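Hey, I was hoping to borrow your eyes for a little while. I'm sending you its amino acid sequence along with the backbone structure tokens. Take your time with it, there's no hurry, and the full record follows here.
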Amino acid sequence: MKITSRMALIATVASVLGTGAVQAADKLSIRLDWSWWPGQTPMLVAKEKGFYKDAGIDIEIQQGQGSKTTTLVVGENREPIGHASLSTAAQSISAGVPITAVAGFWQKGPISLICSGEDVKKPTDVKGKRVGSTPTGSDGQVLPAFLRANGLDVKDISLVNMPGDAKFAAITSGQLDCISGDDYYYGPQLIAQGKKISILRYADWGVTNLSFGIIANNSFLKEKPDVVRRFLEATRKGLDYTLANKDEAIQIFLKVTGNTQPANFHKSVLEAYESSLHTGATQGKPVGWMASEDWDAMNKTLEQYGGMTSRKDPSTYFSNDFLPK
């Protein structure tokens, strides 16, 4: 009787321990593209609302230092997941970095040349101007393509390389004439300060580029595909919640990051995000789904104007297999 009771107790403990092992959260670290900015809100919302926890993921969200750096960090598996510019990811993949894009949440590329004054109407108007760009960021990868697509060269401008978070202060203080970056981010801030500006969106001047998405280390994808799927499902829940509850999402972002920019600026960024979830080729598809023709067009542009070498088949760069159905 005692032996039977003891065996039953052992079986019960083993069952509890086994259940606990199954339910233990997977630790996961994601490297962002840059320091805190509103385009990262869906991931912060997903963490704060418990979507990652519900998916069995113990998430750590790390700020980044530019999309190029993020692709290298993920390629080395220091953080297995990253949020980065997809055009920058394409350049890195072509160069042999072992990563794959697994979701394209912000698909229409907003990278632009934003200039002080209203005299820049066409690309040739930037000749001789002081242009701030971040070589480790997504804009630094696409700026040369924009120039070459319009008959210009980097030598035609006075290029000033600087960190992304220094560009705004540099243009407002008059140290720069133009900055290369996302129009939805810099434009409203400059206008709010009473500045008159000109904007040339690269996509309107011969450069096809996808915007931000999620990248993953190739070995991690093979070893833990279920973690990636659960991460993407929770992230998409965070995106859906963010766009449906913008005011609450903004307050979450401000609380987590300590950001002091006005809420209406953050809302304008989220509205730009909402309008950029699909390209013409992905309309009607689930959010995050990517199209081969978009990748092919972008990579051809990068090969022709942006210095990409060893362009590969589009299937090498991305996969929709990990997206929630």
In short: The chain is about 45% helix and 15% strand. The domain at 111-204 is CATH 3.40.190.10 (D-Maltodextrin-Binding Protein; domain 2). The radius of gyration is 22 Å.
